[in-house]
Amino acid sequence: MGKKAVVCNRCNKEITDRNDLMTGNVKMTVRPFHEKCFKKRVEEKKERASMFFDAMPFNGRYANIMTVIFLLLFLAFLTFIEVPGIALVLVLIYPIYRFISWIAIELRLPSKS
Fold first, then answer.
1. Which H or E run includes 26?
2. Cα distance between residue 1 and residue 52, in whole Å
């Protein structure tokens, strides 16, 4: 049984490898984009305000660094700093989106070469 194709949310064309993949937030859902399509989308959204828009993709080096920072902050809250439970949930939102991006989209494409 073959893997389901990953289709760009903007141009509706298939994304063939991870080098061209960028995942982003569209109405609180992780969606795949070609790199060029994601950049065009960011430019369009800059011109008009949009709620729940994030100009940073969920995959890539910066996203991985942010995920590690949020997870370390979560661990610090659990062990050293007493915070309300809602703060723990809020700190985990970004790592959860990153995990969803990896499981639902990135694993379906061939590895970067």
1. strand 21-26
2. 36
